[in-house]
Amino acid sequence: MTIDFRNPDQALRGADAAVPALAPHQRFILLVLGLCGAGLCVAGLWLLLRPVPWLAPEVAPLLGLAFLLSSVGDVVAAFFLRWIWRRAANRYS
After folding, report:
1. Among candidates 80, 67, 70, which has minimal Cα distance to 30?
2. Which single residue of 20, 36, 44, 80 has CA 20 to 30 Å from 65?
3. Per-residue confidence at 1, pLDDT binned at 50, 70, 90?
4. Is the model's pTM score more than 0.90?
5. What is the DSSP string of 15-65?
6. What ranges do the domains of the chain cover?
7. CA-CA distance, 70 to 24, in Å (whole number)?
């Protein structure tokens, strides 16, 4: 078997080697971030689309927008963490 010394790790693992799975606690963190992102997105859309009597009319759109931006931040953080953890798993496997 010849080894490509430009990338010996992949040559030793094989071209069709599976990507290592994330640890259970890492999957749990990604799940929680995804659920929080979905909840904040629903809350933000609800505040933007439906007037609520217990909140001042000028505050509701700003709070809805803040919830939507927070949900985007949660989803971006989940993708970033997954990318970092998979990179680390590939490096040490």
Report:
1. 80
2. 80
3. low
4. no
5. TTPPPPPPPHHHHHHHHHHHHHHHHHHHHHHHHHHS--TTS-TTTHHHHHH
6. 22-92
7. 25
- For residue 10, the model assigns a pLDDT of 64
Tokens found for residue 61? 């759109």
By three-state DSSP, how is residue 93 classified? coil
Question: What gap in Å lies between CA 46 and CA 40, rounded to an integer?
Answer: 10
Q: How long is the chain?
A: 93
Q: Is the pLDDT reported for residue 76 higher than 70? A: yes
The CA R_g of the chain, rounded to the nearest whole Å, is 21
In a 10 Å sphere around its CB, with 0-12 CB exposed, 13-18 middle and 19+ buried, how is residue 34 labelled? middle
